Amino acid sequence: MENKKLKYIVEALFDKPIDDKELLVNRKKELEHLNKIAYFQPMGIFGVCGETGVGKTTTLNFINAENAKRLYILITEKDSKEVIIGDFLYKLSLLQINSKNKKVRKLATETRDFILNEMSYNTSYGGGVNFAANVSYEKSINNKKRFNIYSVKEYIDNLLSLLIEEYGKVLIIVDELDKEKKEDVLNILDSLKSVLFKENIITIVSLPFSIYREYSNDRMRWNESGNLENIFKDMVFLEPLTAEDIKKMILKRIKEYPDYFEMDALDEIAAFSDGNPRDALWIAQQVALFNTDKNKITKELVKKGIRRIISQNLNNSLSFTDIQKTILKELAKEPVDRTTLVKRLEKKVKRQTVYTYINRMKDEGIILEKSGILYLPSKIKYYIEIL
Ligand SMILES: Nc1ncnc2c1ncn2[C@@H]1O[C@H](COP(=O)(O)OP(=O)(O)OP(=O)(O)O)[C@@H](O)[C@H]1O
Ligand SMILES: [Mg+2]
């Protein structure tokens, strides 16, 4: 295939959060709900949850409210709770430092200078506010973790109050908290709560899946000591996309070469992805790179590519005992409930053993369950095939 075409395709399939509406598939319902939250709710912290790569950042990118000033904050410094809150303030100030509004600009500059000084105070890097401000910030924030958290909160509070005064309502989007451990995320939010729970401030954060589960249990009163509902007023869960949406997503991206993947090749990619757009893009891109000599990608080429990727990636990280293999191979044939699976394995494995193994593999995410039916993630199914 000519280089130009291949370059276009590989670039189009590159995995990064999008903000171009033309490329977005689905998420209409979720975005409508999030936009309503942003527009109508008076205040509060709200969550967007979902497995990694399902599209949290992408969804956050499209949230908007006509009546609010939108601020997107990407937390990058995460050494401790204090550092995260400091980073929050730093990013908040940077966003406003070029504000057209003179009052906002002035306070933002003062805030930025405060945090740079605070962070670099007493470190060998010295000099917070100079032409190398960014460099010294990055270094010192890692080196000095203790600073006056109360002043930081006060600055956040002042800056937010001014923004409310100027814009009426503020919509703060905080991304990348979902990469932290559950306890840490809660800790951080709990500590930011005092400054974020303010009339006319809406905060929407990305969260790890585990928090969603716990939050739902709280709401339904299934948890002993429900306290997540004290922090979160509402939460939106992002389900995996449908196979149709996955195919649409790829076609939208490679729109100059709509015939590059044959239809059943796209089906195969969608099946492998289990509705995770990141996995779909990854496989699609890899297959393109494996087959630079081909003008068209067939289903067979996708299968071959998947097998190659699976054996490269899973061979080193996953190994199964004979009993596990027997159970997984049986389950690979079709999804079934526990009792049926145990019965089918009757002659090969002891009943109790099957139950124990199923539970353990479920905990590890090797076996999935939906409404009592056990099934395998596509990646595991492919892996079993090549064992
Ligand atoms: N609804 C969508 N329409 C089109 N592309 C999408 C959609 N959702 C996600 N993608 C694509 O899938 C990939 C993963 O999305 P994104 O980075 O938003 O996921 P994430 O949940 O934020 O992941 P992480 O857990 O790593 O932060 C990106 O390449 C993104 O462009
Ligand atoms: Mg993300």
From TrEMBL:
Source organism of the structure: Thermosipho africanus (strain TCF52B)
One Pfam family recorded for the sequence: KAP_NTPase
Instruction: Tell me the superkingdom of the source.
Output: Bacteria
Q: Where is the KAP NTPase domain?
A: 41-253
Question: What's the protein name?
Answer: KAP NTPase domain-containing protein
